[in-house]
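Hi team,

As requested, here is the filled-out complex form for the iron/sulfur cluster run. I kept the field names the same as last time so the parser does not choke. Let me know if anything looks off before we queue the next batch.

— J.
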Amino acid sequence: MAFNLAKCDYCGDCLDLCKYTDYDQKSGGEQIRRLTQGETAEILTECVTCAGCNVYCDKGANPFDLILQCQERTGVYETTPTYYQLVETIDQSPGEIAHGEAGKPVINACVVEVIPHLFEGEIFEGCTYLRGGAYESMLAWIHVGKEAPLKKTLQTKVDALAETGFDEIVMFHDDCYAAYTTKALEYGIHVPFKVIHYIEYLRDYLKANADKVRPLGLKVAYQQPCSNRYTPWIDQHLDELFQIMGVDRVDRAYDRKNALCCSSPVSPHLGNETGEAYKTKNIQDALDHGAKAMVFMCPFCALQMREEADRAGLEPIFLTNLARMALGEKLPGQAAGLDDDREQIAGAVQIVKGLL
Ligand code: SF4
Ligand code: SF4
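And here is what came back:
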């Protein structure tokens, strides 16, 4: 994906459909036109980097890539220093391998273990785990208005994963799946191992163990991570997984093409009050459409929204725990880790929520 000027007719649909700004087709098209002519435009400071407009543009022009490029060139995109430092620190942190049983899956857990009990139960027994920033793709650079560091670091990350010698790696962080598939392709980086999304792994595991699955009969609202905008085909695998588990994904306003960001990049950019307002809209939409639980695919989305969902009466559930529930397993704690009292995690929550 990169902005394709030849495909853009300045129709303005991308910004007309943006959930975070107030443009119509005419004024939205004008913003895009100004950017293509090397001028600056208000959208650069208003955009929250959700990448949604790449999906809204049905001409395939990828307007978010233009916006990001201009945010980086002009330096006008603002975030908090702690959020920026978090991204930098993760990028530079080392990696380690926890070897499991030969023949069992290899999971890239990178830096996602911000929630306890993510990889427990029979689904994950005997797996090998790759952990640390060395294996994290750092797609998160886009959320501080930058793409050059991602471009610079992605080859190193692919090399680190290739050096492990595994030929198939299950990506647990949706960011990593997106970066090691679409972004690597865009940058001309060869990825010498098979990249699998953990939703595919869950789906295939439950299919292979269909005799153990007990349909849950639960109505859920799904919180889609922004990185999923780069790999929309994963949503079909998720629908299949929900169907196997007997879970009803409610058809609500802020799902699929119209999904809202969890607010992780919104609060550090536009302030906590704005970030909270979007979370409230999102959760209210889930309630209005009859959901009883909110299901998270990304641990950072869960960290950001689980308390608010719980307070509103929606049980926050992490996707791997939903799969365990479908297998009839008893969970060791709360389904999205709300009972976690580790001190270092409390600090991470504050940073992710833009409170520091
Ligand atoms: S990027 Fe796409 S949606 Fe936006 S103005 Fe151009 S053609 Fe229209
Ligand atoms: S990336 Fe998201 S917030 Fe930014 S302009 Fe596109 S749709 Fe709007």
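Two things worth flagging: DSSP finds 15 helices and nine strands in the chain. The pocket of iron/sulfur cluster (ligand 1) is lined by residues 8-14, 29, 32, 57, 59, 61, 63 (CB under 6 Å).

Thanks,
J.
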